[in-house]
Design goal:
There is one protein chain. This protein is of the alpha/beta class and 248 residues long. Helices cover 31% and strands 21% of the residues. It has one domain: TIM Barrel (Alpha-Beta Barrel). It contains eight helices and ten strands. Strands 1, 2, 3, 4, 5, 6, 7, 8, 9 and 10 form a ten-stranded mixed beta sheet that branches.
Amino acid sequence: MTTSEPVSLEPTSDKGESCLIVAECFGVEVPTFQGEGPSCGHPALFIRLSRCNLTCEKCDTRYTWDWSQFDPRKESTKRTVAHLVAWTASSPVELVVITGGEPLIQQAQLVPLVQGLIAAGKRVEFETNGTIAPVPELVADGVRFNVSPKLASFGVKETKSIVPAVLEAFVASRRAAFKFVASTMADLDRIAELADAHRLAPVWVMPEGTTLEAITATTRVLADAVAARHWHFTTRLHVLAFADARGR
């Protein structure tokens, strides 16, 4: 276990400016795309926030929360809202993806960020695990939520990762799509149970895998069954195009 203490989640800088704890930003200097979900393939800028409230065994961004393997002082920095808005404004790309970790941990500071992004002509997509409901100020024109509830097969207890009241809040927002990582037919059955119980729609299924070979194999296992349920299917474009490199 690293002995370093995480960067403070204090919401202001030394100068009193509103701040967020950020793992990485990318898409301006080296252009990229939204890699999955309803906007897969759209040019996008990414603000990846640090910290998560889950500890999924199959997480592919452990550097945002697993301080037994990563040093938080190397993996996260405090950035002001003004800095992040200016960074996105330096690019003509319209879509800004705010991801994590779990970004809604810091949603009090996200309100001024989102307001600044919208004022700058951007549209915003949140990637969230669906365990924290958004504050009303984030349920706004120009904002969408890609809600990705984690199944037990992802290496997490569903008593922590499935929060019915929060899922229903996202449904009520009318601004959410529900994206599940799956690898087996049993996963699809569990997705169907959750979708029926909580009226989740639209449903997107994404094959698990961090290599071309794994994604291809899982896609072929799941594709017919996903189509038969009339759900949406998304690949993992960052893996296919950039071999899952960070910052792409």
